[in-house]
């Protein structure tokens, strides 16, 4: 027990001069403060659930992304747009992303593989590694027991069939159907569906009915039978291309039996189709609608639909309308649509500007690889990117991209493991040039690129709130 005099003395001294003896307070800190000091150990900015993409160039933090985990909290829609010129790493990103997603048992992926070399699609190696046979759509092989997809497959609703037929015709004609041609198609389609019950109706049946309409159709409209035949003639000529023209064999018969829609990865190899021909958007429309009605089901699986050369979809108002519906319904069915495009100008300046804008709006995630300065500015205006991000895009080196996840903008270095490398780097030019560098030289070059990007971001970080005018 303390001396009473000492107690009184201490109390008086404290009153006059303040407390003499002080107690050392414990050191306390928050997780946020610790992360601010130790950036490389901070939690990833988008959370810690999903697939590893790489690391943020500026902070060094790991970058993890998963649209299914982020949907509803940080993402209004799970769809993703990937932009950039060839040779900058888009393909490697797509492939590693899919491989890493497939580690989750509840994930399924469909890829429309529109590129390739040596007679095989880009995804052929990955399919082989997973023990999967790509679905190769090839007009040359189709005549010899090749793969067929039937636009009139009974799995597709009659409304979906008619919408698909209209799209095929409108894409091929380059304009919408007039009311008379549309009526002729509708009547022919209804008659074929009602009269053919012993087998799958096919396009040949539609063409035959357009050329030889039923008299009852003309009587119902109080017009001559020759007029009804004339209304459907142009439609018949367009569909005839799929039946007896350069695309024959792929769509003019019953759907091939045995296509495994339960496989974790389904690859449609479109590499044998001329990418610049009218056949490609027609093909993508047919595959997209067929998948919508046969593959996407209201179960607990999460599905990813990745489309290379997606400008064929977004740049056609008729095909874009079909995919708009798919994207809207896909959100409640657990579908993430991934569109890979080289240049945004390919889609925003075309005839489908309105439809393209609607699809781009639904893509809450945008990844932009290196572009030329004028292209980067145009991209920034359309996507509403921060000014600093637009300025850094032309300086990006392969493997580094600007990621915009619903306004959360970061510069990210994509990381590829040694196991993934031989599967994802299928471009010979890229692999041969990389092979010429030693491992030390390659790592040094990567470090230099990352340091330049980090310095640029640090210099312009104050402008992160401003967007391109």
- Relevant CATH superfamily of the largest domain: P-loop containing nucleotide triphosphate hydrolases
Average residue-wise pLDDT: 79
Strand-residue proportion: 5-15%
Query: In the CATH hierarchy, what is the architecture of the largest domain at level 2?
Result: 3-Layer(aba) Sandwich
Q: What is the number of strand segments? A: 13
The secondary-structure class comes to: alpha/beta
CATH topology of the largest domain: Rossmann fold
Main sheet?
11 strands, mixed
CATH top level of the largest domain is: Alpha Beta
Question: How would you portray this structure in words?
Answer:
With 469 residues, the chain is of the alpha/beta class. The protein folds into 3 domains: 4-39, no CATH class; 41-143 and 264-463, P-loop containing nucleotide triphosphate hydrolases (Rossmann fold, 3-Layer(aba) Sandwich); 158-244. The chain is built from 21 helices and 13 strands. The chain has an 11-stranded mixed sheet. The chain has a two-stranded antiparallel sheet with strand order 5-6. A hairpin with a 2-residue loop joins β5 and β6. The relative contact order is 0.15. The model is unreliable at 20-24, 428-439 and 460-469 (pLDDT under 50). GO terms for molecular function: ATP binding. Keywords: ATP-binding, Nucleotide-binding. Pfam families: AAA_10 (PF12846).
Task: Quickly list its features.
469 residues, Rossmann fold, 3 domains, eleven-stranded mixed beta sheet, two-stranded antiparallel ribbon, 46% helix, 13% strand, elongated
């Amino acid at each position: 027990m303390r001396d009473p005099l000492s107690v009184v003395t201490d109390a008086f001294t404290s009153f006059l001069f303040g407390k003499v003896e002080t107690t050392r307070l414990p050191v306390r800190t928050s997780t946020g403060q610790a992360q601010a000091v130790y950036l490389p150990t901070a939690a990833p900015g988008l959370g810690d659930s999903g697939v590893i993409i790489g690391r943020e160039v500026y902070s060094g933090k790991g970058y993890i992304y998963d649209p299914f985990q982020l949907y509803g909290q940080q993402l209004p829609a799970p769809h993703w747009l990937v932009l950039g010129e060839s040779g900058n790493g888009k393909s490697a990103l797509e492939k590693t992303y899919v491989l890493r997603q497939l580690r989750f048992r509840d994930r399924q992926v469909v890829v429309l593989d529109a590129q390739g070399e040596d007679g095989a699609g880009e995804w052929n190696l990955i399919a082989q590694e997973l023990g999967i046979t790509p679905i190769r759509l090839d007009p040359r092989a189709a005549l010899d027991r090749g793969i067929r997809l039937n636009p009139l497959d009974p799995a597709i609703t009659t409304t979906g069939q008619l919408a698909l037929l209209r799209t095929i015709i409108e894409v091929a004609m380059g304009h919408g159907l007039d009311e008379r041609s549309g009526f002729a198609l509708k009547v022919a389609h209804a008659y074929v569906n009602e009269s053919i019950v012993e087998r799958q109706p096919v396009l040949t049946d539609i063409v035959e009915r357009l050329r030889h309409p039923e008299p009852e159709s003309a009587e119902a409209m109080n017009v001559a039978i020759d007029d009804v035949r004339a209304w459907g003639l142009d439609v018949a000529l367009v569909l005839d291309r799929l039946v007896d023209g350069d695309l024959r064999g792929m769509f003019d018969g019953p759907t091939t039996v045995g296509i495994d829609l339960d496989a974790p990865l389904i690859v449609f190899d479109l590499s044998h189709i001329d990418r610049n021909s009218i056949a490609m958007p027609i093909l993508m429309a047919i595959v997209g609608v067929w998948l919508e009605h046969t593959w996407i089901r209201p179960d607990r699986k999460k599905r990813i639909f990745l489309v290379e050369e997606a400008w064929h979809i977004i740049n056609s108002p008729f095909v874009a309308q079909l995919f708009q519906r798919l994207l809207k319904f896909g959100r409640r069915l657990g579908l993430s649509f991934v569109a890979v495009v080289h240049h945004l100008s390919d889609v925003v300046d075309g005839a489908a500007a309105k439809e393209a804008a609607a699809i781009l709006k639904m893509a809450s995630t945008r990844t932009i690889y290196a572009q030329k300065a004028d292209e980067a500015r145009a991209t920034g205006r359309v996507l509403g990117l921060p000014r600093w991000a637009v300025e850094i895009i032309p300086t990006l080196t392969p493997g580094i991209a600007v990621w915009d996840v619903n306004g959360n903008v970061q510069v990210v270095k994509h990381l590829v493991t040694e196991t993934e490398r031989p599967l994802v780097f299928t471009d010979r030019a890229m692999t041969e040039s990389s092979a010429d560098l030693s491992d030390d030289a390659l790592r040094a070059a990567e470090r230099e690129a990352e340091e330049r990007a980090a310095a640029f971001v640090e210099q312009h970080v104050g402008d992160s709130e401003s967007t391109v005018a």
